[in-house]
Specification:
This is Gamma-glutamyl phosphate reductase. This protein has 757 residues and is α/β, with parallel strands linked by helices. Helices cover 42% and strands 16% of the residues. The chain folds into 3 domains: 165 residues, no CATH class; 219 residues, Aldehyde Dehydrogenase, Chain A, domain 1, CATH 3.40.605; 157 residues, 3-Layer(aba) Sandwich (Aldehyde Dehydrogenase, Chain A, domain 2). β1 and β2 form a beta hairpin. α12 packs across α17. The longest helix is centred in the middle third of the chain and has 32 residues.
C-alpha cells in the first residue's frame, strides 16, 4: 500500500533575488520529490523511494496547533530519518544547479558551467574562483541555510531574501528588531567559523584536567616495566662550521607580546571570527541598501563606483567583448541587455499611454476591429504558415519534442479556428460599463459598481501562436492593452501575427501600440515585464510549471496564476463501460498536448477483471502507452505496462501516455485526486447519482466533469470565446478566463451636494 506523505513535512524554502539585469534568481531547498515537482530533471532519491513518505502522519490535534506543526517541521529537518534536504538553483525558471546537501558551497554561474547541467544529475563539484557565482552558507550543523549571496563581476555581494517562516528569515527579523542582535548575530556567525578550533583549544585541556586523577590511578596499577634495547653505537664524524658572529643586540619582548604569542591559538580564531562577522554585517547592510535603490529605480547593478571606473577603461585585445551570460562590465552582452530592457520599458510606457484611448472605444468600434482582424488573418494564411514553418524548422533543429511541435504548429484549419475565436468574442457582450451592483444610500446618494478595464495586460506564454491572437481579442474587447512576451520558439509566427493585427488597428485610427510584442532573446525580458510596476497593471503567465512559478514568485505587479493540467478520469463500478471508454479516449487522444487532456485513469476495484482489461486494451489500441503498478495491472491480465514512478502521478505527460491505477471506490478516487491534482479538471463516469453528487461536492478543482470528457474545459466551448488561460487559483478568477475576468470594478456615487457629518 502506498504511504501517505507526512502533513508535517517541511515546505520548500525558496530564496529569491530579483536582479534588474540577471533576472529572477531562486534557490529552492526541499526533499528530492519536492524539488522534482519544480524541476523534473532533479535526481531521484538515492534509495529509490519517494523521500516524501519516510515519516509518519501527525495526530489531528497536532495539526491544529500552528506553532507545534512549525516545530515539527523544523525538527524533521534535523531528524536522522527525515527526508534529505537538497538544493535547486534556478534563473528565470530554468534549473542551473542542483546540490546534494545544505553544506557551505559555491556554485559557478558562468555559461560554460551552467550548460553542463544534465537531466537527473547533480551539479559536479568544481572550484569557484571568480564571479558570477552563488555562495551558500549554512549553520554549523548544516541543518538550515543561513545566507545565500550572489556575486557578479564588479558588484558587491547581494544577499537573496529568505522565505517567510524560515530560520534565516526569523534571524533577520530579530536583527531588524534589535540593534544589539543586529551586531551580535553576524559577529557570532563569523566567530563560529573558527569555533571548532576554539572549542578544541578550550575544552580539550579541561577534559584532560578532569581525567587526570583517573589517568594517574591507571598508571599506578600498571607494572613498572624496564625495557632494554641494545642500540648500536655509531661514531659520527665531527663537522665544524665557522658561523660568523653577527652581533645582534639583546632584545627582550614585552610581557604582552609574550602573552599573545603563548595564547595565539585562542585569540587568533576569535579575531578571525570577529573580522568575518564585521564583513558579514557590512555586506548585509550594503545588500539591503542596493536592493532598496533597485526597487526605487535609483540604480542599476553597474552603477557602483568600481564598475563605473571599469566601464571608463576600454577593453584591450578584445577582452570583455564576449556575447554571453558572463555578467558584469559593459560587455557587448551588457549593452544588449540594457537595450532589451529599455525596449521592454519603452513599449510598456507606450502601452500605458494607449489605455485611455482604448477605454473610450464603444462596443461597436471594438467589434468592427475584431471582425476586421479575423478577416485579415484568414486572408494572410499563406504568410502566417510560411513564418510558422520557420519556427517549426528551428524547433526541430533544437530538438523540441513532438508534443511541443504540435502546440507550435499552425495550419489553415487552426488559423480559421483562431479567426473564429475573434468573431465569437465580437459577438459577446461588452463587459466594460456593466453595472454589477449598487443601491441608494439613506441620504439619497446613488451608488453603483461598474466593470472597468484592467489597463496594460502583460502576457507571458510559451510556444502557442494562437495565444497571441486570443490575448489581443480578449484584451481589446475588455478595453485592455496587451503587452505580449511570447516564446522564442514561436518568434516568427508571433511577429507575423502581431504585424497583421497592428495593420488592422491602424486602419481604425488607433496607435500601433494597441498591441505589441516584446523581445524574447533572453529570459531577462520576462523579468523586465513582470517588475514594471506602475506601467503594467497585471501579468498573466501561460505555460509549464517552471514558467508559471518564475512569473508568480518574481512579479512585483499583480499576477494571475494559470495552472498545469494533471487531469484525472475516474470510472466507477456502476457505469456504462463503452461510454466511459469513449469519454476517456476523447480526453486523452483528441489533443494530448493541451492542458485539459486526461493524464490519469482511475479504475474502480469493483469493475470486473474483464472490464478493467477492456479499458487498458482500448487505450493501447489507440496508441497510448499505459503506465502503472505492473503487478496491479497484470493481476487482471494487462500486458505491456510501463512501471510508474512518482512523476507519473504528479506531472503532465502532454503526450500519448497515461497513468492507470485501481482504487477502492469513489472515496479512494477522491483521496488520490486530492493528493495529486493540479486543480484544473477532474472527471467521473458513473450511473449512480449519489456517487456522482459525492464526487461533485468533494473534488476541489476549477472544473468537475460528470459523465463528460475532460476536453470540455475550454473558454470557447463554455461560450466565453477565446480564453487567456485556465486559472487554478481561487482569487479574482478560477477556470477559463474570458472577458469578465479581464476587468476590474470601480464605484460611482452620484449625489446632490450631500456632505458627511
Amino acid at each position: 500500500m502506498e504511504k501517505t506523505p507526512p502533513a508535517s513535512l517541511p515546505p520548500v524554502e525558496t530564496w529569491t533575488l530579483s536582479h534588474p539585469e540577471r533576472g529572477q534568481i531562486q534557490v529552492h531547498i526541499g526533499t528530492d520529490q519536492q524539488l522534482r515537482d519544480i524541476d523534473p530533471g532533479f535526481p531521484v532519491a538515492e534509495n529509490g523511494e519517494n523521500p516524501a513518505t519516510s515519516s509518519g502522519v501527525p495526530s489531528e490535534e497536532e495539526s491544529e496547533v500552528a506553532e507545534q506543526v512549525f516545530l515539527e517541521q523544523q525538527l524533521a529537518k534535523l531528524s536522522s530519518d527525515a527526508p534529505k534536504q537538497r538544493v535547486l538553483i534556478m534563473i528565470d525558471g530554468d534549473p542551473v544547479g542542483r546540490l546534494k546537501d545544505l553544506g557551505n558551497s559555491k556554485l559557478s554561474l558562468k555559461p560554460d558551467q551552467i550548460g553542463k547541467l544534465k537531466h537527473g544529475e547533480y551539479t559536479p563539484p568544481s572550484p569557484v574562483l571568480e564571479a558570477p557565482m552563488l555562495k551558500l552558507e549554512s549553520n554549523l550543523m548544516n541543518s538550515w541555510m543561513r545566507s545565500i549571496v550572489f556575486k557578479a563581476e564588479g558588484e558587491p555581494g547581494i544577499e537573496l531574501d529568505p522565505p517567510e517562516g524560515s530560520f534565516a528569515n526569523k534571524r533577520l527579523a530579530a536583527m531588524a528588531a534589535s540593534p544589539w542582535k543586529r551586531v551580535v548575530y553576524p559577529l557570532g556567525a563569523g566567530l563560529g567559523k573558527g569555533g571548532w578550533a576554539l572549542a578544541s583549544l578550550i575544552l580539550i585541556p579541561m577534559v584532560i584536567r578532569f581525567l587526570e586523577p583517573v589517568i594517574t590511578w591507571i598508571r599506578e596499577l600498571l607494572p613498572d616495566w624496564e625495557i632494554n634495547i641494545p642500540w648500536p653505537e655509531i661514531n659520527w664524524p665531527e663537522i665544524n662550521i665557522p658561523w660568523p658572529d653577527f652581533g645582534f643586540p639583546d632584545f627582550t619582548a614585552p610581557d604582552w607580546v609574550l602573552f599573545l604569542l603563548e595564547y595565539s591559538k585562542v585569540w587568533v580564531p576569535i579575531l578571525i571570527g570577529l573580522v568575518l562577522g564585521v564583513l558579514a554585517l557590512r555586506r548585509h547592510r550594503k545588500s539591503q541598501e542596493l536592493k532598496r535603490r533597485w526597487a526605487a529605480g535609483e540604480a542599476t547593478p553597474n552603477q557602483d563606483g568600481a564598475d563605473a571606473d571599469r566601464r571608463a577603461t576600454p577593453p584591450r585585445n578584445g577582452e570583455g567583448t564576449e556575447k554571453s551570460l558572463c555578467w558584469g562590465g559593459m560587455t557587448d552582452a551588457t549593452i544588449a541587455r540594457e537595450t532589451e530592457r529599455e525596449e521592454v520599458l519603452a513599449k510598456a510606457r507606450a502601452a500605458k499611454a494607449v489605455t485611455r484611448t482604448l477605454a473610450k472605444l464603444t462596443s461597436t468600434q471594438k467589434n468592427e476591429i475584431l471582425l476586421a482582424a479575423a478577416e485579415a488573418l484568414v486572408t494572410a494564411t499563406p504568410e502566417i504558415l510560411a513564418s510558422n514553418e520557420e519556427d517549426i524548422a528551428a524547433g526541430r533543429e533544437r530538438g523540441l519534442n513532438e508534443s511541443l511541435i504540435d502546440r507550435l504548429k499552425l495550419d489553415a484549419d487552426r488559423i480559421e479556428g483562431i479567426a473564429g475565436g475573434l468573431r465569437q468574442v465580437a459577438g459577446l457582450a461588452d463587459p466594460v460599463g456593466e453595472v454589477i451592483g449598487g443601491h441608494v444610500m439613506g441620504n439619497g446618494i446613488q451608488m453603483k459598481q461598474i466593470r472597468v478595464p484592467l489597463g496594460v495586460m502583460g502576457m507571458v506564454y510559451e510556444a502557442r501562436p494562437n495565444v497571441t491572437v486570443d490575448a489581443f481579442g480578449l484584451a481589446l474587447k475588455a478595453g485592455n492593452v496587451p503587452l505580449l512576451r511570447g516564446s522564442k520558439s514561436a518568434r516568427y509566427s508571433n511577429e507575423k501575427l502581431v504585424e497583421i493585427l497592428q495593420n488592422v488597428v491602424e486602419k481604425f485610427d488607433l496607435p500601433r501600440e494597441t498591441v505589441q510584442l516584446l523581445p524574447c532573446e533572453t529570459h531577462d525580458s520576462v523579468q523586465d515585464l513582470i517588475t514594471a510596476r506602475g506601467l503594467v497593471d497585471v501579468v498573466i503567465p501561460r505555460g509549464g510549471a517552471g514558467l508559471i512559478e518564475a512569473v508568480v514568485t518574481g512579479a512585483t505587479v499583480p499576477a494571475i496564476e494559470t495552472g498545469t493540467g494533471n487531469c484525472h478520469f475516474y470510472i466507477d463500478g456502476d457505469v456504462d463501460l463503452d461510454s466511459a471508454i469513449e469519454m476517456l479516449l476523447n480526453g486523452k487522444t483528441r489533443r494530448c498536448s493541451v492542458c485539459n487532456a486526461t493524464e490519469v485513469a482511475l479504475l474502480d476495484a469493483a469493475l470486473s477483471d474483464a472490464d478493467k482489461l477492456k479499458v487498458v486494451e482500448a487505450l493501447q489500441e489507440a496508441g497510448v502507452t499505459v503506465h502503472g503498478k505492473v503487478s496491479e495491472l497484470e493481476a487482471f491480465g494487462a500486458t505491456k505496462v510501463v512501471e510508474a514512478t512518482e512523476e507519473d502521478w504528479t506531472d503532465e505527460y502532454l503526450s500519448f501516455d497515461i497513468a492507470v491505477a485501481v482504487v477502492d471506490g469513489v472515496d479512494a478516487a477522491i483521496e488520490h485526486i486530492a493528493k495529486y491534482t493540479s486543480g484544473h479538471t477532474e472527471a467521473i463516469a458513473s450511473n449512480n447519482v449519489f456517487t456522482i453528487q459525492k464526487f461533485a461536492d468533494e473534488v476541489d478543482a476549477a472544473a468537475v466533469m460528470l459523465n463528460a470528457s475532460t476536453a470540455f474545459t475550454d473558454g470557447e466551448v463554455y461560450g466565453m470565446g477565446a480564453e487567456i488561460g485556465i486559472s487554478t487559483q481561487k482569487l479574482h478568477a478560477r477556470g477559463p478566463m474570458a472577458l469578465p475576468e479581464l476587468t476590474s470594478t470601480k464605484w460611482i456615487l452620484q449625489g446632490t451636494g450631500q456632505i458627511r457629518p
